[in-house]
Structures are given as structure tokens and as C-alpha cells.
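Reply to dn_fold:

You asked what the input looked like. This is it:
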Amino acid sequence: MSSRKLLPLSGIAAVLLIALAVVVGGTTPDPGASAANVLSFYEAHHGRQIAATFLLASSVPFLVFFAAALASALWPREPGAHPVWELVLVAGGAVAGGTILLLAAVHFALTDSAGHLSPSSLQTLNALDADTWIAWNSGIGVMMLGAGGSLLSRAAGSRWLARTALLLGILLFIPFADFVALLASGLWILAASASLFRSQSSPPVHAAGVAAVVVTVAALVGAGAAGAAGNAGATQVMTVDPTGAVFTCPETDYTVLGGELRLIFHDSIASDGSEHLAQKHVPIGVTLSGGTTSTIYRLVGANSSAGSIRFVDGRYGFTDATFFNILAPSGGVVARVAGVQHVTSRGDFAFTFGECETPPE
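and this is what came back:
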């Protein structure tokens, strides 16, 4: 696989590195901490803070690569169309990367020079280090607004990804709401990275993208326990609105009218430090239209994947199974999506049995 095709996964790498930096760095002194407390903290945690700084700085190129890859995929191809939102997306990625580098530089200076600064200088630098979040949030906010606008301007774009990006882009500029929006933006980048990677893969089943997003969501949930002797795991459940998604079939395309898609993620850490992951996508009350008649169809089935990743040597393996049936009012199957894909660090293979393709997002 060419390096260009791997570029969409840069967003996953960026989020993973940032999450690891936060876990390694831990809780740092607040802006009003005394000089003595600041000095004591950085003398006691010098090595961890230096490591967190380099992890944070190393996320920057991946974040910029992701923004560029997404903008390139959404770049208007129509004659006379102007890439306004795509340029906002690229600029936002550059601004976000710059603010993260600023934060990393300030934190490195604070960690490296804590024992050589006057008390007033130490407190000033610590306050600056603690408050650079406003620049970080703003940069990510511009990137999210650009991504949302770019997706909405494309007829084939994902509606829920677009609307969520625009909402998060706005919330990132609103006090108190911005913290939750920042965390949600990380999850959005994971989903967008996986979706963009999947859209250029064949056959059109979920494993490659799902494996990537599950790995990183699990890393966000369980990174703090990665060094432990093992844990029972954690489960996350969320729902998304699939309205507008299109199943492409040989005779008819089926458009989702309503319902919800329930996403269930589970991860656990074994005693050897490897992470075991599983996910399931289940449609709940999803209805569809064939577009040519007033007949309302139903979607049943599920997409499931499971596997593991070894952080020691980077080896991973995931198996994904997708089986969806589109049912007529009588209960008969009118179309289906069916496929199995196996993705590993040593290679992959896939089999497609159904005649339809899943929506690109």
C-alpha cells in the first residue's frame, strides 16, 4: 500500500500521540500555583514532562497530514467551483499544529528551566503553559468548521460527520462547552480518518477503517492502564443518526429515512500489555426508501469486528464481518450487504458475498 493511501490514518496517529502525551504528563500545576509548588512539581516529574512534550510535538505533522488529506479528498472537482471551505480546513490544520507546537515549546521551556528561573518568571511561564488551551481550541475549531463546510458542500458527503463537525467547531469557541467539544473533536477525527481510509479501500466493507478507529478509541479509554497487570476492560455505547446514508445496489439505491445506528465499543488489556478490542454496529428501527415507489423497507443485521494490538512490537490483527439485509414490508429480503475482511500487520484479505455496497460514511 502506498504512503499516500495511508495519509488519512494520520488523524488517528495525531489523536493517539496527543492522548499519550496527556496520560504521560498527567495533571500539571494550575495557573495560580505558587513558585515553590511549580518548582517542586517539575523537579519531581522532569522526565515524564519532557517525554510528554516530545509526544505532543510529534503529533503536529500527523495532524497537518490529516487536514491536507481530508481537504484533498473533498476538493471540488466541478469546473468553476471554488475550494473555500477546503482552504479553511487546511488553514485550520496549520493553525492547530502551530498552537500545539507553541504549547510544546512553552512546556519544554518550563520543564527544562524550572530550576534556573526567578520565582516570578516561573509563575508567569506556568500560567502561560496552563492557559495556552485557548489557542489550541481555536485552531482545532477553525479546522472543524472547515471540515464541516467541506462535507456539507458535497452531495455524497456524510451528513452526520458534516453537522457534527460544524457543531463542534462552534462549541470550541464557547467557554465551558469548549472542553467537552475538544474531547469530542478527537473522536470525530478518529471517525473521519477511518471513513476516509475506508472510502479508498476495496471491497467496501468496514474492517480497515473500523480496526483503526477502534484501536485509537481504545487507546484513549485505556491508555492510562496500559502498564497495569491487565484489566477487565471498558465498554462505550453511542448512537448516530444514519439518515441520508445510501446503500448502493445493482438495481436500486436505498436511502436511509430514519432510525439510529448503535455503536458498541469494548476494550480490555491483557497481562502482557496487549489490547483486545471489539465493536458492533447495530441498526435500530432503520427504515429505507428505494426512491422509485412509496414502499418503506427495513434494515436488519450488524457489523462486528474484533482483534488485538501488541504495543510492544506494533503487531495487530482484526477480523470484521458485515451482514445487513434490506427487508420488504412482507419480510422478504430484497437486497443484502455481506462481507468478511481480515486485516493484520502482515497483510489482509477480504471476501464479499452480498450484491450491495455500504454507505461511504
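Residues 1-200 form one domain.
Hope that clears it up.
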